[in-house]
């Protein structure tokens, strides 16, 4: 097996991300915190921004639906960077080694444009990447097959030339169906072994 380029996901591959990191600071009671995350500030609601919807419209609509939780909804936007506590251990070192070998690096990420504008200046590892397909800009979400077709075209990769790394199996399966090789990310050690198997790391 051999790959010409490596394509990363960002959230929970390059950087840890979970709204719970913020809400553990905002809501002391565990049951109440779980309820808010399951019913108010949900992953599905967050994904609207990943799909291209402006945050202001999302906050206004959700606050009208849950007026008693409006301060928490607003805090999610104002303090969103606290949902990212730092890099995934070991992965940035692998990115650096790939860059030293001049392996072309790209990314496909479900990420809203406003949150991306906050996050990008804090993420110097992204400087190694030649191009990134951002869902909020394209209004396409993984695992929509169209986002992988767009990425192949943007990155100039033929089927089989790109190894795609993601922490979600459904995203890997969709990418493989469109011509990527796939690696389901679990930790840096297993990723390092996979990169060696694919011929892009010693």
UniProtKB/TrEMBL annotation:
It holds the Pfam family Hydrolase. InterPro entries: HAD-like_sf, HAD-SF_hydro_IA, HAD_sf. It comes from the Bacteria. CDD domains: HAD_sEH-N_like. This is HAD family phosphatase. It comes from Parasphingopyxis marina.
């Amino acid at each position: 097996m051999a790959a010409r380029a490596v394509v990363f996901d960002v959230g929970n591959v390059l950087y840890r991300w979970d709204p719970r990191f913020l809400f553990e600071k905002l809501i002391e009671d565990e049951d109440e915190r779980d309820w808010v995350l399951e019913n108010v500030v949900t992953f599905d609601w967050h994904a609207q921004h990943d799909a291209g919807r402006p945050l202001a419209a999302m906050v206004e609509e959700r606050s009208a639906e849950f007026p008693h939780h409006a301060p928490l909804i607003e805090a999610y936007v104002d303090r969103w960077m606290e949902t990212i506590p730092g890099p995934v251990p070991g992965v940035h070192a692998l990115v650096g080694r790939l860059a030293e070998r001049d392996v072309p690096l790209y990314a496909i990420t479900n990420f809203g444009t406003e949150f991306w504008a906050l996050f990008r200046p804090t993420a110097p590892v992204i400087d190694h990447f030649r191009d990134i397909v951002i869902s909020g800009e394209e209004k396409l979400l993984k695992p929509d097959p169209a986002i992988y077709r767009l990425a192949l075209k943007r990155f100039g990769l033929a089927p089989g030339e790109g190894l795609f790394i993601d922490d979600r199996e459904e995203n890997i399966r969709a990418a493989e169906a469109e011509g990527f090789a796939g690696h389901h990310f679990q930790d840096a050690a297993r990723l390092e072994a996979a990169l060696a198997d694919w011929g892009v790391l010693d």
